[in-house]
Every structure is written in structure tokens, then in C-alpha cells.
Specification:
The complex is a heterodimer of chains A (68) and B (136). Chain A is 69% helix and 16% strand. Chain A is α+β, with helices and mostly antiparallel strands. Chain A folds into two domains: 31 residues; 36 residues, no CATH class. A two-stranded antiparallel ribbon of chain A has the order 1-2. The longest helix of chain B is centred in the middle third of the chain and has 25 residues. Chain B is globular, with a radius of gyration of 21 Å. The termini of chain B are far apart. Classes of the chains: A alpha+beta (68), B alpha+beta (136). Chains A and B meet through β1 and α2 of A and α2, β3 and β4 of B.
């Protein structure tokens, strides 16, 4: 019986850890984007993974690293 | 107020902005809160970022680019454009976007107001009065 409890606890712990990692990765991905605002008041959001965002985001990362 | 004083004032007021720079769209730095060498590198990167964003705008046939935010989990880059000039700021993660844009627009407006108004084009010389009259 105690052995089963240990296994259950370990399983719950591992599940919770995996869930945390998944949530953090997902929220980090949703935070990574480029928003362009135009003179006519419209806005375009380029999500990470799109070719345009993947062209602009490395420059932004370099700029942030340089700003340090 | 000159550009250096304006960015120093903004840096003192904003709790979110880490680095501020005013530069031309060609990357030539007017003033920055970092040393000259870093400012020059930041100016070049900001120029590349704006050029890339402008190329996206061009591909999509959109209006002129007014401002942009590049957001990453480590921080954000903000650029506000005003003619040939741009104000660039970096922040930490999850900034108050509207507030940062407002601060940068105000900065550019202050700098625009401080500049002398462009000289009026010279009025064309008046034709000499027709003496003697032309009526026959």
C-alpha cells in the first residue's frame, strides 16, 4: 500500500511538472511576436513561426542583447 | 529641449523603459542613454528592424509604418517613427504597451516642437508695375 502511494505521488509530481513546462512554453510562444502599426490606424500581429516574424525577431533579440 | 535632455527626462520618468535612443531612419544616432559605441550598434539594428518591417508593409500594400513592438519573453523593442526620425526603447518582459508608445510619441513631439520651423519659401518677386498702361 505505501509503495502504491509513493508511485501515485511521483506520478502526480511528474504530471504537474510536465504541465508547468508545457504552460510556460506555450505562454512564452504567445508572448513572442511582432506587432506592426500603420498610419491608417490598423495593426498587424506577426506571430512567431511566421516567415516575417522569424526574419524580424532575431534582429529584435540582437537589439535586446546589445541593450543588455 | 535637446534630444539628450529629453531622453534623460523620459528615462527618469518611466519605470519600464531600460534603454532609449533617438536616431534617424538610417540608424544615425542623435541621442541615447547608452555609450556611443553601443548606441551605434543599436542604431544599426533598429534601422534593420524598421527596414524589415517596412518590407513586410510593402509586400502587404499597407499604409506607412507608424510604430512597432517586437515582443520576446526576455523583453520588448519599441520603435515609433516620425518622418525620417525614430525613437527606440527597450523594456523588460510584459510592458504596458500603450504607455511606452505614448512616452515615445511624446518624446518625438517634444523634439519636433524644439526644432525651428522650416523657412518659408521666398515669395516670387513681384512683376514691375506696368507703367504707362497697356490699354491701347
Amino acid at each position: 500500500m505505501p509503495k502504491r502511494r509513493i508511485w501515485l505521488g511521483a506520478l502526480l509530481g511528474a504530471g504537474s511538472f510536465a504541465g508547468t513546462i508545457f504552460y510556460r512554453r506555450r505562454s512564452a510562444r504567445s508572448r513572442t511576436r511582432v506587432d506592426l502599426y500603420f498610419d491608417d490606424g490598423s495593426m498587424l500581429s506577426l506571430a512567431t513561426g511566421s516567415p516575417d516574424a522569424d526574419r524580424l525577431l532575431p534582429i529584435a533579440r540582437d537589439l535586446l542583447a546589445e541593450a543588455g | 529641449m535637446d534630444a539628450a535632455a529629453a531622453i534623460d527626462e523620459l528615462k527618469g520618468l518611466s519605470t519600464q523603459i531600460e534603454v532609449i535612443m533617438v536616431a534617424g531612419r538610417d540608424g544615425a544616432v542623435t541621442a541615447a542613454t547608452v555609450d556611443d559605441a553601443r548606441a551605434a550598434r543599436l542604431g544599426g539594428l533598429a534601422r534593420d528592424l524598421v527596414a524589415g518591417a517596412d518590407s513586410v508593409r510593402d509586400d502587404l500594400g499597407r499604409d506607412a509604418l507608424a510604430q512597432l513592438q517586437a515582443a520576446t519573453p526576455d523583453g520588448s523593442v519599441f520603435v515609433v517613427l516620425d518622418g525620417d526620425r525614430m525613437a527606440v526603447a527597450t523594456t523588460g518582459a510584459d510592458p504596458t504597451v500603450g504607455l511606452v508608445f505614448y512616452d515615445l510619441k511624446t518624446l518625438l513631439r517634444q523634439l519636433g516642437a524644439a526644432e525651428p520651423a522650416p523657412a518659408e519659401p521666398a515669395a516670387p518677386a513681384e512683376a514691375p508695375a506696368d507703367e504707362g498702361g497697356a490699354d491701347a
